[in-house]
Write a structure and sequence with these properties.
binds cobalt (II) ion; six-stranded antiparallel beta sheet; 2 domains; alpha+beta; Aminopeptidase; binds zinc ion; eight-stranded mixed beta sheet; 8 helices
């Protein structure tokens, strides 16, 4: 599982450019699913089982990134962001363009060295000396460049948001030998720019219920307050986030299943941010949804950290939910 996670997190796929990660995931799930298709927005949809309740399980394939907006005469690349990328995460960071070109991020001089630079003041240096020899064109996308790090129980990578959700979905599909349900594992596109792939794929699937698999915030490092979630205490069953209230029947289904299986879990109230479940909930005439979250430190930084036990327990919980008739 760790080596697959390394492969998933070291693949570059900012929102809208998910082809590379889609091929990695497709190769992994091809032998496991009953049917696989890709829809018009690039969502990878794998069905397991036939008849029974249609359940959609969404994990997003895309990651946050940068997009070149202007190349100046000296070959420096100006950029804007794809999703929630913050300037303080970018100073000195290494990035890699989808084309393979590496670069480093820095800023124009600041009034005070302790100031946080605005994105407009920052640039990517790809080693070019002029616009003519710059290997990057306007509109090319980049993502953080950072290798996977295995600290034993704690695992660190760029794009843990949400390749860890993709891993949980893949491993649950692998573990799901038989199901009375019609399960659609959807590896979605463009979540980081507003849950766009989940919206169209949910419309196409028209599920009876669903949940997302995504990361959530954390409360267990210095100075963090008002967050319950901690690494190693189990996957979190979402009750509320910044864009969604989980359906109480889904919460009950998840809690009862976790307790019956002896799987540790945490109750999640997230103050800001949301997941693909929000888009699923509001599609067509509405869908009851919830979310299983993996507590993740330093979300949207180049070094996002999860606990391996939480990951394994998320796989167990997801599999147990899907392997049995839905009881809520
Ligand atoms: Co995110
Ligand atoms: Zn996410």
């Amino acid at each position: 599982m760790k080596s697959l996670l390394q492969k998933l997190t070291e693949t570059f796929a900012p929102s809208g450019y998910e082809a590379a990660i889609r091929e990695v995931i497709r190769a992994e799930i091809e032998p496991l699913a009953d049917e696989i298709r890709v829809d018009a927005l690039g969502n990878l949809i794998a069905r397991k089982g036939k008849g029974g309740k249609r359940i959609m399980v969404a994990a997003h394939m895309d990651e946050i990134g940068l997009i070149a907006s202007h190349i100046d005469e000296n070959g420096f690349v100006r950029f804007t962001t794809i999703g929630g990328v913050y300037p303080q995460m970018l100073m000195g960071a290494r990035v890699r363009f989808y084309s393979g070109v590496p670069g480093i991020v820095y800023t124009e001089p600041l009034d005070k060295p302790t100031d946080t630079p605005a994105i407009e003041k920052m640039f990517i240096d790809v080693g070019a000396t002029s616009r003519a020899d710059c290997p990057v064109k306007v509109g090319e996308v980049a993502a953080f460049e950072r290798p996977f790090l295995d600290l034993g129980d704690r695992l660190v990578a760029k794009s843990m948001d949400d390749r860890i959700g993709c891993l949980v979905a893949i491993e649950a599909l692998r573990a799901l030998k038989d199901t009375p349900n019609e399960v659609y594992f959807v590896f979605t596109t463009q979540e980081e720019v507003g849950t766009r792939g989940a919206e169209t794929s949910a419309f196409g699937i028209d599920p009876d219920l669903g949940f997302s698999l995504d990361v959530t915030s954390w409360g267990d490092t210095p100075g963090r307050k008002h967050f319950e979630m901690a690494l190693g205490k189990g996957p979190a069953i979402k009750i509320k986030d910044g864009g969604m209230l989980s359906d109480p029947r889904i919460i009950r289904w998840m809690v009862n299943t976790a307790e019956a299986q002896g799987i540790p879990y945490q109750r999640e109230v997230l103050l800001g941010g949301t997941t693909d479940a929000r888009a699923m909930q509001l599609v067509r005439a509405g869908v009851p949804v919830g979310c299983i979250s993996i507590p993740c430190r330093y979300v949207h930084s180049p070094s996002e950290m999860v606990d391996y036990n939480d990951v394994q327990n998320a796989v167990k919980l997801t599999t147990a939910l899907l392997a049995n008739p839905v009881e809520w």
